[in-house]
Amino acid sequence: MVVSLEEVSVSIRGVRVLDGIDLEVAEGAFVAVIGPNGAGKTTLARVILGLVRPDSGRVLLFGKPPNGPQNRKHLVGYLPQRQQFDPGFPVSAHDVVMMGRVGCIGLFRFPSRADKDAATETLRRIGFRDTLIGKPIGELSGGQQQLAFLGRALCSHTRLLILDEPTNGLDLVAQRTFYRVVRELQRNFGLTILVVSHDITSVAGCADEMICLKGSVHARGTAREVLASPGLAEAYGAQPLGFPARGD
User: What are the residue boundaries of the ABC transporter domain, all occurrences included (predicted)?
Assistant: First the structure.
């Protein structure tokens, strides 16, 4: 398993945020963790990354504890919730992706031609035309900016992508483009994808498995199974209807 959690519980400032979470993510899977705001989804992602220590339970990332001496965090690309930045800051999409190479290059070292080529190839892989690669990040659309940040998460030895509310603030066309790119990365390169989102419609059409979370797991299965489950209504307070399952 790429990710394995057993009976994981987390408290923050004395409040139980996650309670008895069991989760497995197989290699090459596309798993969406859905739930309302405040359900503990971001905390779950941070637990997997080793950024939050659980009160109890076991967390394994590629078979190793995320903060252990032989951890595999270098195999993980993480896209946190949409970031604010100065649109006038003079960096290009290529520069943003190059930041993802720091783990390969090392601090205080200059990137090689191979590093620069890897960043360019990553941007092409996610659909950037050559005319956009050197364009200032502030001149790109919101969807293009988010794809550049996705490229930063990809541009090393990434085997697992963890995406935290990746389409917040994007219009419908940009959301669909983003998830189409992510789905292609899974299919064409065998990446494992874990998305956390409160927006069911964004992920229901592309996830292999969905997990509905609100402190604890309320439902899990295919998108169709979760959308029809009583646990979804419990988590959201009402049954969201009419959302497409993958393949519809």
Answer: 3-239
CA 60 – CA 68 distance, rounded (Å) = 10
pTM > 0.90:
no
202-221 burial, b at 16+ Cβ within 10 Å, e below that, comes to bbbbbbebbbbbbbbbbbbe
Q: How many CB atoms lie within 10 A of CB 146?
A: 25
User: Which residue from 81, 37, 32 is spatially nearest to 243, judged by alpha carbons?
Assistant: 32
Q: Which residues contact 78 (CB under 8 A, 6 or more apart)?
A: 45, 49, 153, 161, 162, 164
pLDDT in tens, 5-35: 999 999 999 999 999 999 999 999 999 999 9
Contact status, residue 63 vs residue 116, Cβ threshold 8 Å: no
| 30, two tokens | 């596309």
Dihedral of alpha carbons 207, 182, 68, 96, sign: negative
Q: Spell out the domains of the chain, with CATH numbers in brackets.
A: 3-85+158-236 (3.40.50.300)
For residue 246 the two structure tokens come to 């993958």
Structure tokens at 112: 């090689």
Name the packing angle between helices 113-125 and 142-154 (round to 10°).
130
Token digits for 170? Answer: 């994007």
Q: Give Cα 22 to chain centroid, integer Å.
A: 19
Rounded to the nearest 5 degrees, what angle is found at the Cα of 129, between the Cα atoms of 205 and 97? Answer: 80
Note whether 212 and 229 are within 8 A (CB): yes
Across the range 106-126, mean pLDDT stands at: 79
